[in-house]
Specification:
Layout lengths: L5 E7 L3 H12 L4 E5 L4 H5 L2 E2 L8 E2 H14 L4 E3 L2 E7 L2 E6 L4 E9 L3 E3 L15 E2 L2 H4 L7 E5 L3 H11 L4 E5 L10 H10 L2 E4 L4 E6 L3 E10 L2 E5 L2 E4 L3 E3 L2 H5 L23 E3 L13 H21 L17
The chain binds flavin-adenine dinucleotide.
The site of flavin-adenine dinucleotide has 36 residues, from helix 1, strand 2, helix 2, helix 5 and helix 8.
């Protein structure tokens, strides 16, 4: 019997994996709750998405609104909150949140994604919003006519740089490697064709300089006879690390990259704990919205089996489903 604040599956996250899981869990008629800190996750701030099937071109935020809309159709509760602690007692789980609430669940589905990496330089935190940015989609329009640098060599870096070329006068792409190997060729071509981007390979940023905000960066290699480069903004796209803290609290096994290890059905090593999306080792290098969503669906299906087998499901009655959603 379900009571208030008690659910079959506690879905942690509000990104593609979480909403896909919520949709599938609801359609399996187990009772999910979505508890997530930031609506839409990385997809919502990832800019224009051109590789999500069914949408030739859609803003990531709008795509996530559609995910949310579909979960809303099944009246899945979606809570804007951060889970700060997860504990397990006799196979039952409790999530404690930043706002002081506690939620009980027969199972947990971790869809918490990854945390952007930082360079670890002085002023990096202090000048976030004052020239230092981790989100080109959010901040590119602020740099109309400016000179900016993007640090990184992955697809997110190149995609961000392409967007910036549409606003900034000049975009430096600074990468410690000697050539790009990871970006999608289509994005790389768009960057090369932009005409106002310059790649600085084998180069690292070693200092951020300025007064009350960024005005230049120091490189570990000369460009045009100087290691100082005047920029109005720097965009850090140097990868991300899995948000593994909650998994660790539950004794979930991680791999050498701190990704949650899941099997093909998104089970972790802890019974009743499932995981999906970028926090896991499931999609290797192809961490994308479509793979996260697919894993969310799989994880919900496995969670359904788990709660059914354990005879713990506080199943929704079919009658509670909205018309047309049965
Ligand atoms: C700049 C950029 C551009 C991209 N472009 C594309 C693209 O064009 N196409 C594509 O397919 N993919 C793209 N991606 C990748 C895509 O965004 C990710 O693969 C996808 O968002 C992963 O979804 P997820 O649900 O696993 O995690 P996320 O989207 O990261 O969502 C994680 C969620 O968990 C929440 N959370 C974290 N910790 C807690 C906690 N303790 N309590 C509660 N909630 C928590 C977060 O707030 C967030 O809501 C891009 C990524 C970036 C960074």
């Amino acid at each position: 019997m379900c009571t208030a604040n008690a659910y079959d599956v506690l879905i942690v996250g509000q990104g593609a994996a979480a909403f896909a899981a919520a949709l599938y869990a609801a359609r399996y008629q187990i009772r999910p709750v979505v508890i997530g800190e930031t609506f839409g996750g990385e997809t919502a701030t990832g800019g224009v998405i051109e590789n999500y099937p069914g949408y030739p071109e859609i803003d990531g935020f709008d795509l996530m609104l559609k995910f949310r809309e579909q979960a809303d159709k099944y009246e899945v509760p979606v809570l804007d909150d951060k889970v700060v602690g997860l504990e397990s007692v006799d196979g039952h789980y409790t999530a404690r949140t930043f706002s002081g609430e506690a939620y009980a669940g027969s199972s947990v589905l971790l869809a918490v994604g990854r945390e952007r990496r930082k360079l670890g330089l002085e002023h990096e935190e202090e000048w976030t919003g004052k020239g230092v940015s981790f989100c080109s989609t959010c901040d590119a329009p602020l740099h109309r006519g400016n000179v900016v640098a993007v640090v990184g060599g992955g697809d997110a870096a190149v995609k961000g740089a392409v967007l910036l070329t549409r606003y900034a006068r000049k975009v430096y792409v600074i990468y410690r490697g000697s050539r790009f190997t990871r970006p999608e060729p289509a994005n790389l071509r768009a960057l090369e064709e932009a005409g106002n981007a310059e790649m600085l390979f084998d180069t690292n940023v070693v200092a951020l300089q300025g007064g009350d905000g960024l005005s230049s960066i120091m490189l570990d290699r000369e460009r045009d006879g100087s290691t100082e480069l005047d920029v109005h903004g720097i965009f850090l796209e140097i990868g991300a690390d899995p948000r593994a803290e909650l998994a660790v609290q539950l004794g979930v096994a991680l791999n050498e990259r701190d990704e949650v290890v899941v099997d093909r059905r998104m089970r972790t090593n802890v019974p009743g704990v499932f995981a999906a999306g970028d926090v896991t080792d499931a999609s290797g290098e192809l961490k994308q919205t479509i793979t996260a969503a697919a894993q969310g669906a799989l994880a919900a299906a496995t969670a359904y089996e788990y709660v059914s087998e354990h005879n713990e499901a506080c199943k929704w009655h079919a009658a509670s489903l909205p018309e047309g959603a049965k």
